[in-house]
Design goal:
By secondary structure, the chain is an alpha/beta fold. It has nine helices and 20 strands. The protein has two domains: about 140 residues, Carbamoyl-phosphate synthase small subunit, N-terminal domain (Glucose Oxidase, domain 1), CATH 3.50.30; about 210 residues, Class I glutamine amidotransferase (GATase) domain (Rossmann fold). The strands form four sheets. It has a ten-stranded mixed sheet with strand order 11-13-12-14-15-20-19-18-16-17, with helices on both faces. One of its GO terms (biological process) is 'de novo' pyrimidine nucleobase biosynthetic process.
Length: about 375
């Protein structure tokens, strides 16, 4: 760790050195989903759950929409993982390989036999820090100067995980949603298309306002790193807030970028919120819901720009968990309603968003009914 502490353990992944920001998650299940979540790009992930790897890693199965069933992207996104007790023998009907084999195949180092509780105490007390993972002789000789510390928040991580070209799913959906891909999770796309939407995934810096008339709604996805590195997206959203009168919804990074476009600033949290059990208070109805979260930044919401107000608030630390416009159909949340794995308490937000999109479309275009053409069969004569 850059703070000076050294932890020794046993390697069970790729025998390669790596460096990044050390963060921890308290999630009990879902390590394949967490490790493939683009929001963990550039980070060394510490699991507080002691036993990791006991159900192995599933295969690359796809659902009816062409999305991977068990992974949030097509590769491991984190730089490395740290666990207390790696299960060398796995057992699950979907598993095709061990966690160690999976990490080695993707070139991701992994260490077990570490006191992860001690690491978490350090991170909670001092805040997230930078770290390195070294394997073999370099680790044995404590040759930690071989590679430098790397701060991923100095890079535009959003550009690294975003799609390079537009991609569409469920082309025959009744409404069209443009997804600004800042590192979108597969289950977010699944949550949209399974509700009947046609989804077009767009690059993070795509000027969607040039074709905004083609979409009934805009969705701004989750993503990794420092939101101030994605100012092109903020600029495009800011234009949309003034001229796009259709629904906009954001999740996680989408909440930060929408807030910045509205006029709010962001701050880095001391150690972030990464868990499946974070309570968020709905400021509209007073209900408290358990949410899944994975973010290291939050909006500064002490003073709101005209027309905006708080949507959700973190009950644990009081940080912002969402914003909503008072009159326009714009809103976003910092947590993950699609949670996989994790609680599904706020899954209804997708229903509300798409119901709003459909309602606004009916106002614009009215109800359209398909009336089949009447076919007259004349008597054939020879």
């Amino acid at each position: 760790m850059k703070t000076g502490e050294v932890f020794h353990g046993t390697s069970f992944g790729a025998e390669l050195p790596t460096a990044g920001e050390i963060v921890f998650t308290t999630s009990v299940v879902g390590y394949p989903e967490s490790m493939t979540d683009p929001s963990y790009r550039g980070q060394i992930l510490v699991f507080t759950q002691p036993l990791i790897g006991n159900y192995g890693v599933p295969g690359l199965f796809k659902d009816q929409y062409g999305l991977l069933k068990f992974f949030e992207s097509d590769r491991i996104q984190c730089e490395g993982i740290v666990v207390n007790d790696y299960a060398t023998r796995y057992s699950h009907w979907t598993a095709v390989e061990s966690l160690g084999e999976w990490c080695a195949r993707h070139g991701v180092p992994a260490i077990t036999g570490v006191d992860t509780r001690a690491i978490v105490h350090l991170l909670r007390d001092r805040g997230s820090t930078l770290g390195k993972l070294l394997v073999g002789d370099d680790a044995a000789n404590e040759n930690f100067s071989k590679i430098p510390f790397v701060d991923p928040n100095e890079r535009n991580l959003v550009s690294e995980v975003s799609t390079a070209v537009p991609v569409s799913y469920n082309p025959f959906g009744d409404i069209k949603i443009g997804v600004i891909d800042c590192g979108v999770k597969n289950n977010i796309l699944r949550s949209l298309v399974k509700r009947g939407a046609c989804v077009t995934v767009l690059p993070w810096n795509f000027d969607f306002m040039k074709i905004s008339h083609e979409f009934d709604g805009i969705f701004v996805s989750n993503g990794p790193g420092n939101p101030t590195k994605a100012m092109e997206t903020v600029h495009n959203i800011r234009k949309a807030l003034t001229s796009y009168n259709r629904p906009i919804f954001g999740i996680c990074m989408g909440n930060l970028l929408l807030g910045m476009a509205a006029g709010l600033d962001v701050r880095k949290l001391r150690f972030g919120n990464r868990a499946h059990n974070v309570p968020a208070l709905n400021m509209l109805n007073g209900k408290c819901q358990i949410t899944s979260q994975n973010h290291g930044y939050a909006l500064k919401d002490d003073v709101f720009p005209p027309g905006w107000k708080k949507y959700f608030v973190n009950v644990n630390d009081g940080s912002n968990e969402g914003i909503i416009h008072k009159s326009a159909p714009f809103r976003s949340v910092q947590f993950h309603p699609e949670a996989k794995g994790g609680p599904e308490d706020t899954d209804f937000l997708f229903d509300e968003f798409l119901d709003q999109v459909r309602s606004e479309k009916v106002k614009r275009e009215g109800n359209k009914f398909f009336v089949p053409e009447t076919i007259h069969h004349e008597t054939a004569r020879v």
